[in-house]
Amino acid sequence: MQKSQSNSQSSKRSLHKRKVSFSQILIMSVETLWGNKLRTGLTMLGVIIGISSVIAITSIGQGVQKQTELTIQELGTNVMLVQAGAARTGGISQGDGSASTLTWEDAKAIAKQVPAAKSVTAYLQRGAIQVVRGNINISTILVGADLNLPAIRNIQVQEGLYFNQSDLEAAKPVAFLGSTVRDKLFKSGEKVIGADLRIRGKRYTVVGVAESKGTMGGQSMDDVIYIPLTNMSAQIVGNNALTGVAINGFWVEASDPDQLNSAQFQVTNILRLRHRIRPPILDDFVITNLVDIISTFGSVMGYLTLMVGAIAGISLVVGGIGIANIMLVSVMERTREIGIRKAVGATGRDILRQFLTESILISTIGGVIGVGFGVGLALVAAAIFNFPFIVPLWSVGTGFTLSLIVGILAGGIPARNAAKLDPIAALHNE
Questions:
Q1: Among 111, 197, 337, 348, who pairs with 419 as Cys (CB 3.0-4.6 Å)?
Q2: What digits encode the pLDDT tens for the residues 167-201?
Q3: pLDDT, position 8
Q4: CA 291, CA 409: separation in Å to the nearest integer?
Q5: DSSP track, 264-318
Q6: Could you count the other beta carbons within 10 Å of the beta carbon of residue 299?
Q7: What is the rounded average pLDDT for all residues in the chain?
Q8: What is the pLDDT of residue 393?
Q9: 350 Cβ partners below 8 Å, 6+ apart?
Q10: What are the tens digits of pLDDT across the range 377-422?
Q11: According to the per-residue pLDDT averaged within each range, which of 69-73, 271-275, 330-334, 366-370 is highest?
């Protein structure tokens, strides 16, 4: 009898000492989650939405930023834009380029006097110009330009020709169309070159069509008509400058990207001299180079993407709260099971590990599915809106790490509560 009692006590001691391996805990956790598939799936939903939103938003932001940078770089990394100052109406600024502080003569002087300038092209632009062909009536952007524009702005001729020196000197009514304007005014197969248009009621003859340049900043660069600067000044705008043909601005191409800053310095000095501007009077013109634009745009897009991504990350917090809630309910429902396991030898540490493993499994599997959804959404968006498909690895790593942290934090308290349950009280629980 004594021997039997001794064996029983020895068996209990060995049972209490027996450790549950991690693989056993993992299998039990998987079985538990699989046995409650609907609940597990709904619990994962918050994590899936949070992770996929973060990855999709950061990927789309990076793709849009890259596409815009490529578009800007197509204009040349060694060019700068010089615009007239801003006109004011009723104390309200009309924006850079709206005043009449620059003339075509300024642009010609820059071309001659700035050693670092390879080429200069002046422009005069007006928006919402009515264009009519037959019974088709559209509104578009009209640009008066000189002969250097195609080279500096990388505009290629798709059909016909760009207007020539004779057209410019004689202020002839000829038009060079952007591809979007051509598509709006002409049906497929119709003869475009030589056709007549009416721009603000005046007849113009189409001499050529430009290749598509796509969009920049969400705006089409093909919804435009180019006409000789001289004609634009005389027929559309009217020469309103005292010292020459007023322009909105001009583009300067530096001889080399390294010469861009030198060219900008020289252009500033020459214009201040020509306009008799002395300190402390401010410049009546604004100079912007494309390198600055790319840098500024990249910074703005970076901050914007991070901000929106952080907002999307709030979904992860909601997902974590959902996991914590479900785990707390699970502990309450399985109190008797916990009591039985403790009665047959499971330690509080084993219970803690099991509930924590379940919580981490939910968040980890949700994170993997969320990564897949996020990458898929980014891929679809890139295909639809035609920008580069870029998935930043840091967003995948950050999203996955966050999901893991959410699982540990959300499951920690319920797991600790389960581990602290008294086995006798748990067995009496109904």
A1: 348
A2: 999 999 999 999 999 999 999 889 999 999 999 99
A3: 46
A4: 45
A5: HHHHHHHHHHHTT--TTSPPSEEEEEHHHHHHHHHHHHHHHHHHHHHHHHHHHHH
A6: 10
A7: 82
A8: 84
A9: 19, 20, 25, 341
A10: 999 988 888 888 888 888 788 877 877 887 788 778 778 877 777 7
A11: 271-275
Is-contact 245 168, C-beta < 8 A?
no
Residues 50 and 404: their CA atoms lie apart, in Å, by: 13
Dist CA 294 CA 316 (whole Å)? 33
CB atoms within 10 A of CB 278: 8
Measuring CA to CA, which residue among 47, 49, 43, 66 is closest to residue 374? 49
- Contact partners, residue 352, CB within 8 Å, separation at least 6: 415, 416, 418, 419
Cα 109 to Cα 25, 204, 234, 269, 296, distances in angstroms:
82, 30, 22, 12, 30
Residue 166 has pLDDT above 80, yes or no: yes
Q: Are 270 and 287 in contact (CB under 8 A)?
A: no
Greater pLDDT, 266 or 7 = 266
Q: What distance in Å separates the CA atoms of residue 168 and residue 235, rounded to the nearest whole number?
A: 13
pLDDT band at 19 (very low <50, low <70, confident <90, very high): low
User: Distance of CA 16 to CAs 5, 20, 177, 189, Å?
Assistant: 17, 10, 87, 88
How many residues are there in the chain? 430
Whether the model pTM is above 0.90: no
- The secondary structure of 375-406 as a DSSP string is HHHHHHHHHHHT------HHHHHHHHHHHHHH
Contact by Cβ (8 Å): 126, 142: yes
Q: Which of residues 278 and 206 earns the better pLDDT score?
A: 206
Per DSSP, helices labelled H in 114-198 are 149-153, 165-169, 179-185
pLDDT at 138 over 90: yes
CB atoms within 10 A of CB 389: 16
The residue whose two tokens read 């530096």 is 254
* CA–CA separation, 126 and 105 (whole Å): 20
β-bridge pairing 88-89 and 92-93: antiparallel
Under 8 Å CB-to-CB from 6, ≥6 apart: which residues?
none
Measure Cα distances from 416 to 55, 277, 348, 354, 409 in Å.
Answer: 32, 76, 8, 11, 11
Any idea which residue has 């088709």 for tokens? 136
For residue 396, give both structure tokens.
């995948």
